[in-house]
Amino acid sequence: MMRTALTMLVGDRSKFLGIVFGLAFGTLLMVQQGAVFRGVMVLVYGHVTDTPQVELWITDPGMPELDRSEPLNERYLDAVRAVDGVHWAVPLSRRQVMLRLSDGEVGSAVVMGIDDATLIGAPSVDKMVAGSVQDLRRPDTIIVDQHSASTHLATIRPDGSRQPLSVGDSLQIAGRRMTVVGLCRSTLNLVLLPTIYMLRSHLSAIDINTDRAFNIILAGVGPGQDPEVACRRIAATTGLAARTSAAISRHVYDYYLYRTGIPANFAIAVLLGFVVGAAIAGQTFNQYVHDNRRIFAALKAMGMRDGRLVGMLLYQALFAALIGYGLGVGAATAFGAMLAGTDLSYRLEPELLAIVLAAVLMISLSAAAICARNLLRLDPAQVFRS
Amino acid sequence: MAGDAPISLRGVTRTFGSGSAAVQALRGINLEVPDGELFMLVGPSGCGKTTLISIVAGILRQDAGSVRLLGEDLARLPGRLQADFRARNVGFVFQQFNLVPTLTVQENVALPLQIAGWRRRRAMDRAAATLALVGLEARLDAPPDSLSGGQQQRVAIARAIVHDPRILVCDEPTSALDREKGRQVMDLLRAIAIRPGRALIVVTHDTRVFGYSDRIATMQDGHIVRLVRRRFDPATAATAEPAPATVPL
Ligand SMILES: Nc1ncnc2c1ncn2[C@@H]1O[C@H](COP(=O)(O)OP(=O)(O)OP(=O)(O)O)[C@@H](O)[C@H]1O
Ligand SMILES: [Mg+2]
């Protein structure tokens, strides 16, 4: 009987396609927006991901996100170094600065001022695409992220093509000419600002607004030491916020999730997908049941139990849901494949797919349930009325 | 013996609506439908024929009186078991055929068996055999809409008898057909649907087919006003007017 139920639905070509289209469209919108959202949200802690050798991130306790951390000073650094279990600790100055592009245009960039002595916080060797981290020790030198070098920071040739910024070129940062000595891969940040690495001493020299202050302390624990324990000790003795890589990622993530308008915008788009999908699929399914009510009444008259009739309807809805979902996910995946190699970050995660599947099942099964109510009210005696 | 008839109604009434809009469709029906013959129910439009066979088919409840189908009082069964009773015992032929357009002819005929819980494979085999009885063995995979009206009604008859029901109700089976097709459908009903133990009721106001009956009940205004037993004569069935009453009410 269940196979017959499917034949009945699929045979009603236009209705079936309408239902599947509605569900596929809703799925596509929900999955696509969800994946873009997740893609964007992992960017907010890209710095942490890109710096795997760092185990502890220490900031002022009120820090909402990495670009907005209050300045710290050497006394804090000494205090952290003195904490039992802390193996090493170095300063990092992370801030936004103005820069002037070769065509005279003004932009800004995220600058990482890394520790002169250890170079901790610089791109790891495997992230370097050209040049060398050691060259940062030469005066007025920088390393630029490769993506920006070939996009925002590229020079436009007279014929309109782009000449990527490369090793040996220079860039004006805060009024000072800096020479590019390396290119590296790095996770894009949320607003796609270029990421620039230089020594902290060089940054202090060109950034007149600040003294030698830094705003993040990067640290590591000794072998066999528990980073969580070290964090608690640092917090207790210095009053600073000390977090493991995972904890600071979550902290920054939560800030963007709960305190910015980003999630709301995506939520609206996802909701729209849900509503539009539900409207199209629900309405078409309802139309299908309505148009076939004579048939359903005949089935009832011929002795089909109500439970079986409802089961048939749910089965039809389930079938349409899975097909629509499959098509929608397929389209969303194709969309992701199209984005590969662009600025847009897109993350299709199993959790997202599961949530959308649940949403699609909810749409189709509740549509079926609503229609089932009408079927149960259907009077089998109406089969004899024309 | 009257009490053994597959269908037995006593003092059955049925009213639709209430207050000033109330329509008394049945006003006290007493009826025994015997098995093994073709029982015809005729009468002017609105006299209550459809209401009466709906009750006989177990899809409509009477307001008062008793209805016994195969000795059962359906009104006393829960809805689920009423459905099961119909699935086992009742076959339907409708004026508008009511075939499922998206299923094949064979799948349509297999439906009552599947409703009764048969496996698809077995149901399809039986459906094919039954379609051979109505001369449509070559059209098993056709969609119903590709058949003529007469052929569709033959599919409907196959569907109505495929599960060998003991009650077979046909509401205006020839009204949507021309004279020749109507005649073929009645020939077919007589040839394959009459059998011992089965009550076969045909509701019609198509006077052209009255001659196919073994017994005719005439209704008027919610009453049965005349019951005629005839001798069916295949030679004249297609033309004969029903014989005058030979059995008093
Ligand atoms: N569901 C209903 N609601 C209201 N009135 C109804 C309903 N069913 C039947 N009636 C009324 O009951 C009366 C008998 O109807 P019924 O359909 O049984 O007549 P019929 O003899 O089959 O007529 P026809 O030859 O036109 O099919 C009619 O007046 C009809 O309008
Ligand atoms: Mg009628």
Which key phrases capture this entry?
heterodimer, A: 386 residues, alpha+beta, six-stranded mixed beta barrel, two-stranded antiparallel sheet, 12 helices, elongated, B: 249 residues, alpha/beta, Rossmann fold, six-stranded mixed sheet, three-stranded antiparallel sheet, 6 helices, 29% helix, binds adenosine-5'-triphosphate, binds magnesium ion
Q: In brief, what are we looking at here?
A:
The complex is a heterodimer of chains A (386) and B (249). By secondary structure, chain A is α+β, with helices and mostly antiparallel strands. Chain A contains twelve helices and twelve strands.
Q: How many domains would you count in the coordinates of chain A?
A: 2
Report the mean per-residue pLDDT of chain B as an integer. Answer: 90
Number of helix segments of chain A?
12
Query: What topology, given as strand order, has the largest sheet of chain B?
Result: 5-6-7-3-8-9
CATH architecture assignment name of chain B: 3-Layer(aba) Sandwich
End-to-end separation of chain A: 27 Å
Instruction: Please summarize the sheet with the most strands of chain B.
Output: 6 strands, mixed
Q: Which small-molecule species are bound to the chains here? A: adenosine-5'-triphosphate, magnesium ion
Most extensive chain interface and residues per partner: A-B, 28 and 33 residues
Integer-rounded radius of gyration of chain B: 18 Å
